[in-house]
Amino acid sequence: MHLSPAHDAHPRTPGEEQFALAAELLALLGDRTRLTLLHALTAGESDVTTLTEACDAARPAVSQHLARLRLAGLVTTRKEGRRVIYALSDGHLRRLVDEALNVADHRLNDRPPHD
Predict the structure, then answer these.
(1) Are 28 and 69 contacting, i.e. CB atoms less than 8 angstroms apart?
(2) How far is CA 94 from CA 43, 99, 114, in A?
(3) How many CB atoms lie within 10 A of CB 40?
């Protein structure tokens, strides 16, 4: 596996609180449905119906995952009539999702071919 240069490395040694919050964030990203939802939101705002189609999961499950992401502060919501529109809370999260998927791409491409 090839790692990018650490030009965007954290500028100082993180403390216990930073490690705890980062671990909590990564645990939330560790769920395939939530990661799929966050990836779908990197393209822009979306409602539950569109997000349900994007991750091919049951609507109640998608709603529960979105509620968890909202409570964690990873997504924001706004009302548009009766619809709730979801968006990523910030660009850092977009980059984190992109980097996680880039690492997955590299790992898949670096595997030896199957016999």
Answers:
(1) yes
(2) 9, 9, 33
(3) 19
| SS3 call for 86 | strand
pLDDT interval class at 9 (50, 70, 90): low
Please compute the mean of the pLDDT values over residues 37-48 and round it to a whole number: 96
3-state secondary structure at position 88? strand
Q: At what angle do helices 91-110 and 16-29 cross, to 10 degrees?
A: 60
Helix locations, 30-115, DSSP H? 32-41, 48-55, 59-71, 91-110
pTM: 0.82
Nearest CA among 94, 86, 101, 93 for reference residue 21: 93
Quote the radius of gyration of the chain (alpha carbons, Å). 16
Strand order in the sheet with 46-47: 46-47, 83-88, 75-80
